[in-house]
Amino acid sequence: MIRRNLPFATVAVIVLVAAPLLLEPFRLSLLAKYLCYAIVALGIGLAWGQGGMLTLGQGVFFGLGGYSMAMHLKLTEGGGLPDFMVWSGVEELPALWVPFANPVFALGMAVLGPVAIAAILGTLVFRQRVRGAYFAILTQALAAAMVILLVGQQGLTGGTNGMTNFFDLFGRDLAEDSTQRGLYLVVASVLGVLYLATRQLVNSRYGRLLVAVRDGEDRVRFLGYDPALVKTVTFAASAGMAGLAGALFVPVVGIISPALLGVVPSLELVVAVAVGGRHVLAGAVLGAVVMGYAQTAFSEQFADGWLYLQGALFILVMTLAPKGIIGVAERLRRARTT
Amino acid sequence: MLELRDVQVVFDGFRALDGVDLTVPDGELRFLIGPNGAGKTTLIDVITGLTRPAAGSVRFAGHDLAGRKEHQIVRLGVGRTFQTSVVFEELTVIENLDLAAGFRKPLWSLARRRRGVSETVAEALARTGLEELAERSAGVLSHGQRQWLEIGMLLAQRPKLLLLDEPVAGMSKDERERTGELLTRIADDHTVVVVEHDMEFLRRHASTVTVLHEGRVLVEGSVDQVSADPRVQEVYLGRKASDAVGNRP
Ligand SMILES: Nc1ncnc2c1ncn2[C@@H]1O[C@H](COP(=O)(O)OP(=O)(O)O)[C@@H](O)[C@H]1O
Ligand SMILES: [Mg+2]
């Protein structure tokens, strides 16, 4: 028990204690952003790595969470209509916005909205036995459609620019370092708790069933299970994680816009999971943090190079180390002990 | 009791099953033989919901199976294996069996970790003689062991009716013998339908045989009756039925 949890405990101490003490506020905020992506990646690790559902549309759920939170933040600023509505000539708060003034509603929608949409989509799609590349393409199309929808509804969503200029969160000043440090700790804790819960699920009988569905969906039917239900539940869970991540991302980074949740960001997260190692949850989390950091480090120097580097890295991993960074680490450790 | 009446299956105009009538009483060990392409696998597919019949009825234990989903039919107590065995290679032998045993539990109750070995799983392990391999991953099993694991998974489901599609194909003589004994013991408390070609195997273990040919039931009877039947001999191209049947893969 202790042995098994030692790596997790070590990482938890570094992330929760060492990082806030050692990193300057700007860097800490960046790390918080990567950890938000890691929460999405965790969901991808569950749905794709364990369940075999290649979802290229997690940005949709991330976006739903992000927009829910952004709407709430815009409404608690005081001073009437949100800024972007004024600029686009909206005179009265749209009815859709009204309930988001309530923080519980906004947070609930951030998680339950994505869960509900994934559950409906899953029920429709998995029952028809849509899978593999068809499922991937479908989710990608969803991401594209989401962007079009958001851009088209300028007065409701802020269009291409999305929403920004958030000032306070539940009564705290977002510009304060202490608020940002607190946010960081919240994000890290949420990630830790979700990681443990997901790991528990993966190690449970349900986890075995999920792997069985991934490797032999048709066979699983003849074991008396309904694979469509198993997949739907898993997909919905991963969507919920993405939604929560989106809601945390907005106060951390201070912006939400269609560019942050379209086809490309959705793909980037899948690439990150593949690079980290999709077959274990830790690989997914690690991949998101590493790729997030690499993107920042790289973009500071060559703005456009990142996309190419990312593509190259993906191909490299897929051909040379299909189990990603974690797979390489496991191989090295085994080579050392034998 | 399993009861098929005038079952027809059509694939793109081709009649794979052309009016099959079949009755298997409870507790029987029934062998199903016939040349390749006779429709044996298709027959099992129809019973288990993998293929929808164009006409006819399939009833089991008072239930009409037509139109039910695969997993629903399993829940009525009908289990099957496939011609090419499919076990979950990334899971251990125990995990495979445990998965098979767990389908009646509600989904949420699976969220807990497996602790120890349930009685059902232990029994399936013992019956198939896989105890020593319990903790090994199914990917390392030999062909014969995989077939036994499949049968074990079937037993763990506690079905009333077992449908086995060529369970001894590709097995060594010893393995066939063990499998035959296993099937006989299983038939003590289950209804079993086995698709098999090997005449020697049939002679040793079969009581009643149904011969399928071009989507129809040709003959039904004891092994001796069936192999002496001129129509069966004709189906196997005029050669002695025992030779012809015995040599098929
Ligand atoms: N899915 C399918 N589509 C088209 N034809 C099929 C399909 N499945 C089986 N058949 C055909 O139906 C006939 C019976 O096949 P099958 O039941 O597998 O025979 P058996 O198991 O007795 O060797 C064969 O001619 C086969 O080619
Ligand atoms: Mg066959």
From TrEMBL, chain A:
Keywords: Cell membrane, Membrane, Transmembrane, Transmembrane helix
GO cellular component, one term: plasma membrane
Subcellular location: Cell membrane
Domain of life, per lineage: Bacteria
Membrane topology: Multi-pass membrane protein
Listed transmembrane segments: 6-23, 35-64, 104-126, 133-152, 280-299, 305-326
Main location: membrane
MF terms (GO), sorted A to Z: branched-chain amino acid transmembrane transporter activity
Pfam families: BPD_transp_2
Annotated CDD domains: TM_PBP1_LivM_like
Record's protein name: Urea ABC transporter permease subunit UrtC
Gene designation per UniProt: urtC
Automatic annotation (TrEMBL), chain B:
Domain of life: Bacteria
Entries under InterPro entries matching the protein: AAA+_ATPase, ABC_AA/LPS_Transport, ABC_transporter-like_ATP-bd, ABC_transptr_urea_ATP-bd_UrtD, BCA_ABC_TP_C, P-loop_NTPase
Record key words, sorted: ATP-binding, Nucleotide-binding, Transport
GO molecular function per UniProt: ATP binding; ATP hydrolysis activity
SMART domains assigned: AAA (SM00382)
Protein name: Urea ABC transporter ATP-binding protein UrtD
NCBIfam families linked to this entry: urea_trans_UrtD
Residues covered by the ABC transporter domain: 2-239
Organism, as annotated: Nonomuraea deserti
SUPFAM superfamilies recorded: P-loop containing nucleoside triphosphate hydrolases
